[in-house]
Amino acid sequence: MKICFLANPTWSHIIKWSQALTALGHDVHVVFDENNGPQEAFPRDMTLHPLKVPDYRFPCPWLFRYTLALKRMINRISPDIVHLHNLDLAGIACVLLRVKPFLVSVYGMDIVRYGDNKEVSTKKLIFKKMILHYAQRVTATSAYLAGQTQKYCRFNKQKLKIIPFGVDIEKFSKEVNPENRGVKRIGVLKDLRSEYGFKIFFDAVSVIKDRGMTFKVIIGGDGEGRKELEDYAKVLNIKDIIEFKGKIPFEEAGDFLRQMDIVVLVSVYESFGVVGLEAQSLGIPVVGVNVGGVSEIIDEGKTGLLIPPHDADAMAGAVIQLLKNDDLRQRMSAQGPLFVKRNFEWEENVMSMVRLYEDLLNDQRENA
User: Fold this and answer.
1) Which residues contact 7 (CB under 8 A, 6 or more apart)?
2) Are 341 and 169 in contact (CB under 8 A)?
3) Residue 209's Cα: distance from chain center in Å?
4) HSE, side-chain direction, 13 A CA sphere, residue 82
5) Residue 240 DSSP label
6) Nearest alpha-carbon partner for 193 in 259, 267, 289, 123
7) pTM recorded for the entire structure
8) Where are the domains of the chain?
9) DSSP labels, 98-111
10) Spatial contact of 204 and 316, defined as CB atoms under 8 Å apart
11) DSSP 3-state assignment of 192?
């Protein structure tokens, strides 16, 4: 099967989907805006097609030029399926071109309005509704996200599918938990952005320190909020126990998480939370803010703890509970991998997507 992704090839989701489908023998092509970033940053094991939008001597709207460029690209690739990842203008171009079969996957910020993304223009709302209405199938990573997507456009059960972005059990398999390494490590793996709730987490770290606990915080991630967070750590007098590791490459996430005794999902806006699943698959207890789809990826009290949003004291209390209670931490460590394997095994997620592709192709043949 020849599959055309319309997506940013630097996203970990796209890399993982492309690798998995290619391993099954499918021919995956990724079409992307050439302005997505420097070419040298893109993965080398993917078939990439940068889309250049031409300039014309006569006045011509950008969307029209983009649509013509995409039409030429799709005709050149001649895919069996066109799969849009994340709602954007590429989807409008597909609507205008009447591309079929056409599948859309939503991931969170393209659907859920929060933080700086809370106000969405009427034009963007109309575009999103047009894309979702036209798509023959739509996938969401969680029941929460599926419900939010339904607010844009009512779907029948056949059209909207929940396919989690699960965990490769072999890559994220539990190893012997190094409980004897001394100072307990609390890990966070997330981009450093203001809307993700890091300041609340730092407030919680300050509370934990004030209660006399000995621990270290390791943060994997980078972003425009790093300098502000470093300054905030100084203000709270917790800079000495926080280590900023910078951006962690997608393929090194497992190595990073394996160093931790507890992983905290700090975000106060979250449609899914794959890092939490990866941690649990490795046998690491998770503390997560009970927002969005987070309650779907933590078995409360068995593999991790859920806390209310915007509550630094509750977050501190949950972490302290895990730091103090070795038996609880070990029980969660044993249950985490079983929970992930039972509900979020990546291999099954990939096969669900392949079956969805096959259903689309069968519908196309029947309607031809």
Assistant:
1) 13, 14, 30, 31, 32, 83, 84, 85, 86
2) yes
3) 31
4) 26
5) G
6) 267
7) 0.89
8) 2-166+346-367, 179-343
9) T-SSEEEE--STTT
10) yes
11) coil
CB-count exposure of residue 130 (10 Å: 0-12, 13-18, 19+): middle
CATH of 2-166+346-367, one of 3.20.20.70, 1.10.3210.10, 3.30.230.70, 3.40.50.2000: 3.40.50.2000
Question: How many Å apart are CA 294 and CA 291, to the nearest integer?
Answer: 6
Cα 244 from Cα 228, distance rounded (Å): 13
Beta bridge partners of 305: 287
CATH domain 179-343 topology: Rossmann fold (3.40.50)
Environment class of residue 122 by beta-carbon count within 10 Å: exposed (0-12), middle (13-18) or buried (19+)?
exposed
Rounded to 5 degrees, φ, ψ at 93 are: -60, -40
pLDDT tens digit sequence for 141-195: 999 999 999 988 877 778 999 999 999 998 998 765 555 567 899 999 999 987 7
DSSP at 248:
P
Torsions phi, psi of 45, nearest 5? -100, 25
Q: How far apart are CA 281 and CA 175, in angstroms?
A: 10
